[in-house]
Specification:
Layout lengths: L10 E3 L9 H10 L7 E5 L3 H8 L5 H9 L3 H11 L3 E5 L12 H7 L11 H10 L4 E7 L7 H7 L9 H18 L5 E5 L4 H4 L8 H8 L7 E4 L27 E3 L6 E2 L2 E2 L1 E5 L1 E3 L2 E4 L3 H13 L3 E5 L10 H8 L2
Parallel strand pairs: 1-7, 2-3, 2-13, 3-4, 4-5, 5-6, 10-13
Antiparallel strand pairs: 8-9, 11-12
Helix pairs in contact: 4-12, 5-8, 8-10
Length: about 325
């Protein structure tokens, strides 16, 4: 997902027959993501390069650690509690190669020193404040190597495009596995971005594939709900029987249509939509009025679907009052 994602007019969810071979997997998927049905959550892109672009200050390892150390957990958790959000999803990292949680496997594989993974495990600390307020915790991570970090891309053997990327995927799954094993049941779900070449990278019978990818993410929590994002498409669909809910990335929320007879699922996966309240993903002023947000959210939830609203976050970790006001209207 980028600030320049292509907007589409209509998002239509329709039923697709489930293959008998995958029926047990689909039953598991519905169980894992059942807590999302008829509810909504909030996402924040807390990214080093986006913060640097916003503040005009060059990002360094020391500055990144200082930002993560000062992230105001309690203030953010209180904001979310006041809105009634059922879950909170945060980016672990993206294209800059800076991550908000330590990962020894990543450091060993890339050889980057000093590490661009933060000293503080912000995800683990977020769980503590969210759990006491009844808010589930989810995490976001790209499916590819950090595009803006040449050293990491080379070390991880990542090739952008329709390539098998066998060596990369094996390494990336080991990075994901370390995070998942450490966080355990603290993380209720994963949202993987940039799964743009599924036939080439993930649909082979031998690992690495969708099955091994999902297994790595569930290393610490077998009940963790997973979504694989193919990008912005004019309809919701499940890319793999190994995912539990739809990634649902969409810019034009007004075009969402869901058939009530599907009961909030498609091909066995929980229908979930992810869109942004700001002018761009994670940035800008509010682009909608409260009435619009409420109307679109109500329509989706009344059909058994779910929605996550991406909301700009400030360097200190809190959301601006105008966005909190919009979320509270829900």
């Amino acid at each position: 997902m980028t600030p320049n994602s292509i907007s589409r007019r209509t998002l239509v969810a329709s039923g697709i027959a489930v293959g008998l071979a995958f029926a047990p997997l689909r039953a598991q998927a519905q169980s894992r993501a059942a807590w999302m049905a008829g509810h909504w959550g909030v996402m924040n892109h807390y990214l080093a390069d986006w913060i640097a672009r916003t503040t005009g200050e060059r990002m360094t390892v020391d500055r990144w650690n200082a930002l993560v150390d000062r992230f105001d957990l309690e203030a953010l958790a209180e904001q979310l509690k006041s809105t009634g959000a059922r879950w909170y999803q945060i980016s672990i990292g993206q294209n800059s190669g800076y991550y908000l949680s330590p990962n020894a496997t990543y450091d060993k594989l890339t050889g980057i020193q000093p590490s661009k993974c933060s000293r503080r495990d912000l995800v683990a600390d977020l769980y503590d404040v969210m759990h006491t307020r009844g808010i589930r915790l989810m995490v976001y991570l790209p499916a590819g190597a950090p595009a803006g970090d040449t050293v990491a891309r080379t070390a991880l053997q990542w090739e952008s495009g329709a390539h098998r990327n066998r060596e990369f995927q094996g390494k990336w799954e080991s990075v994901i596995r370390e995070w998942s094993a450490r966080w355990g049941t603290k993380v209720s779900g994963w949202w993987f971005d940039g799964c743009y070449w599924p036939n080439t990278m993930y649909r082979s019978e031998d690992a690495p594939n969708f099955k091994s990818f999902a297994s790595a993410a569930r290393a610490g929590n077998p009940e963790s709900a997973i979504a694989f994002n193919p990008g912005v498409y004019p309809r919701i669909f499940a890319m793999s029987p190994y995912q539990d809910y739809t990634a649902g990335e969409i810019d034009d929320v007004a075009g969402i249509q869901i058939r009530r007879q599907d009961g909030g699922t498609i091909d066995g996966a929980q229908i979930q939509v992810l869109s942004h309240l700001g002018e761009k993903w994670g940035m800008g002023a509010p682009r909608f009025g409260k009435e619009q947000i409420v109307d679109w959210t109500r329509k989706l939830l009344s059909s058994g679907g779910a929605i996550t609203w991406d909301t700009p976050v400030q360097p200190g970790g809190t959301m601006a009052p105008e966005f909190v006001s919009q979320l509270t209207a829900l």
